[in-house]
Amino acid sequence: MGRRLGGFFSGLGRGLLPLRCLVCEEPGTQGLDLCPDCRADLPWNRAACARCALPLPRAAPRCGRCAGLALPQASARAVFLHAAPVDQLHRRLKFHGELAASRLLGQLLAEALATAPRPQALVWLPLHRARLRQRGYDQALELARPLARALALPLLAGRLHRRRATAAQSELDAGARRRNVHGAFAVRPGPPLPAHIALFDDVMTTGATLQEAARALRLAGVERVDLWALARA
Prior knowledge:
Structural class: alpha/beta
Radius of gyration: 18 Å
CATH topology of the largest domain: Rossmann fold
Strand order of the largest sheet: 1-6-5-2
Number of strands: 6
Number of domains: 2
Number of helices: 8
CATH architecture of the largest domain: 3-Layer(aba) Sandwich
CATH class of the largest domain: Alpha Beta
Distance between the termini: 43 Å
Shape: globular
């Protein structure tokens, strides 16, 4: 009861406090902690490859890298480029646990993905348990929660997991990234998974990690996996 009341009064407090832009601290607008000028500066990833979300001069069904490849995902959507001010908000969430940033980014994600093909459930790309213990929270989950709530999608917890820790992908080239995550994911036994799942991560770089997790979901019987991400590096 206390936890529910705490959540109620926390939500009430947010409703009574004035909106304040998390980027420049000017007044927020349109129900967001974001001012009109900073909203206009958001780096939307509108022209991209439909299979890997790679930014392109114009939107295309496949980029040159995806052509001819048998990919486990049906589509990929990265809402933003990993550039200012989204990269700053993401760092505040990832490294400082700033949940106000996750709330704002979740609202922007839901706005952009409301028109995407509708999955039956949302799954986030989980951290390995050792990294989760070290950080204390999973930034992808903190974004997936408000996104699932806003889109009224079930958020499937505990089924997809990392079987082993992997090296940081940022330190590796494209080939090494694929080898690094090969076989890193598995699906735990349980009820049949939905036929259509959206797999979410915070930042998509080459897509190797998301694709390996998508393969695990496909092997577990999922017919269609769409990749969703906050940003494309």
